[in-house]
Amino acid sequence: MHPPTSSRASNLSTIDLMVLFDLLGASNPSIPSYFPTTHWAYTRMARIEKQLREDGQAFSESNRNWFVDGETFQSQVHKDGVQDDHIHFLHRGVEILHIIPVMSP
Fold it and tell me: Is the per-residue pLDDT at 9 higher than 80?
């Protein structure tokens, strides 16, 4: 378990970041950054995608980047709330990085 001097109070507190991959399968998804608190991880994923494309290791139909938000979190952009099994973790303070495309109307 967690000794009294541990910085981790519970098993949930041992989760630094939950990454939720869902609804992927379209040939050219647009994946926004959903939360400002995990935008740092989102930008790292975007950099990985960019590097893979530059190295010729990632391809898609239009060669357009899937991670569409920039270095700064866009709070004014409408992003539908994703309702899934992660909600219980989110409400208990676990940081969530959604890798979920926005759905086209």
Answer: no
pLDDT above 70: residue 76: no
Q: Is residue 16 one of the residues assigned to a domain?
A: yes
CB 102 within 8 A of CB 79: yes
Q: Identify whether 63 is part of a domain.
A: yes
For 19-41, the pLDDT digits (tens) are 988 888 887 888 999 888 999 99
Cα 24 → chain centroid = 12
Alpha-carbon distance of 4 to 74, in angstroms, equals 40
**Residue 3 in domain:** no
Longest dimension (CA), the chain: 54
Between CA 67 and CA 30 the distance in angstroms is: 6
Would 6 be classed as within a structural domain? no
